[in-house]
Every structure is written in structure tokens, then in C-alpha cells.
Amino acid sequence: MIIDSHCHAWRTWPYEPAVAQPEEHASLQRAWRELVSWGVSSALVVAARLTGNSDNNEWLTAQAPAFDGVFAIAADWDSRWLPTYHAPDADARLGAILREMRPQAVAHYLGDADDGWFGEPATDVALALLAEHATPLSLHAPPGWRDAVIGAARRHPGLPIVLHHLAFSGHDDVDDLRALAACDNVYVKASGAYYASAADSARTLAARTRAAVDLFGPLRVLWGSDHPVAQRRGFDPRVHLEAVAAVLDPAEQRAVLGDNARRLFFEEPE
Known about the structure:
Elements: E1 2-7, H1 22-25, H2 28-37, E2 40-46, H3 56-63, E3 71-76, H4 90-101, E4 105-109, H5 121-132, E5 137-140, H6 146-155, E6 161-163, H7 178-181, E7 186-190, H8 201-216, E8 221-223, H9 229-232, H10 237-246, H11 250-266
Parallel strand pairs: 1-2, 2-3, 3-4, 4-5, 5-6, 6-7, 7-8
Keywords: Hydrolase
Protein name: Putative TIM-barrel fold metal-dependent hydrolase
GO molecular function, one term: hydrolase activity
């Protein structure tokens, strides 16, 4: 069983350059065809309310049921491209998302610079609400946010915080993530190696995944394709998946490639 912990789909293609069939190119149908061809059985779709897709949360919620439970959704909460990014009352907006969507996770994309958002009382209220609802936070957090993420993880030990793209580690041994790994509720997605190394992204991802498993343990690392953004950047997620599988033993493969995502995003909380 292989579960993709990080893919996307939109009503219409949100990036430049434009494509000939923008609706099909970004669709859940295309995502599913690609995933099946790699042997994937289900996936977490990370919402991103980008240009032309301000309704990505609602659109995914309406589209996903047609796929009979294949897709879980991480709803976009106040991400960096939105006018509500780090505006007051973040907790109220999160509460509305949880009530109206009942997503399997919530996604938040942080800007490059730490603006003190994790120190806001409303943020702590919101994170406590996520923990109460047993809803993981799927978090895009550039390196400048690491101390703030560690602080939030310690204040909310019951909240799984799942960091995108190996937390943008700058080293193949991911030793720069050691303080994050010390927080038992912090997870990392083995995805997006091309952000760090365009020259040999599959080798980079494999090396960093192996190191992350050694550092975080096999139960806190999850593979993700970043479809269709990976293909937009010229990389083949199947090659990345095969490279990651090759550096893991069978028990680690079961955890990293499937069981961890199933436990976090597809099982009903107790």
C-alpha cells in the first residue's frame, strides 16, 4: 500500500506558463491517473488557494467524493498568498473551515520571514482547536521559522505538525533538523527535493529521506509526490518514489510509503 502524503489539484492550472488544457491539467482525474500508474492507492490533496482558484477548498470538497475515499483533503488556512494571511481572528477562520469542511488535515503556507505569528494568542487558540479535533497541520515552513515551529510543537504536544519537503533541509544528512526531530509530534514529508537540488533531485531525496528516517524514526517520515508541481519543474515523481524505496528496508517502506499517512490522514480519530 502506497499513500501519497502531498499532491495538489485545482479547478484550473494556476501557474505560468499557461497550458493548452488548464482544467484537465490540474484536475483530480489527472492526479488519479498519475498516482495509479506509480502504484499509489490513495493520497492527501493539499489545498492551495492560488490565482484563479480561490475556491480550492470548496472545489476539492465537492470533487473528492466521486473517488470513493481515495483522496483526503488538507484545507488551505490563511496561506501566504491570501489577503487573510496572518490577519487577526485566524482562530475564527480556522473554526469555520473545520465546521464547514471537516477536512482530514489543515494546510498553512508560511512566508520566508518569521513575522511572530506563532506568538499570537489567536494562533495558539487555533492550534489547540486543531489538536482538539485531531486534525494534523500540514505546514510549509522555510528554515527561518524553525524555532517558532519547535515552540508551537512543545506548547501543543497533541498536535501532529507535518512539515513539507523535509523542512527545506540544506544538508543531505538533514542534521540541521535535529532540534525539530526532538519534538515527538513533528513529522516530515519526503518530497520536493528539487527545491534544494535541481541537478540530481532523486539522489538528493533518497539521501535525505534515509537520513530523516535515521533522525526522526521511520514512523515520522512520509513520502509525497508534489504532483503536479514536480512535473512542472521537470521531475518525475515515479523516479523519486523508486529512489526513496531503494534506501529503506521493508518495514521502513511500509511506514514511510503508506502506514504513516494512513494513520494521520485516513483513520478516524479515537
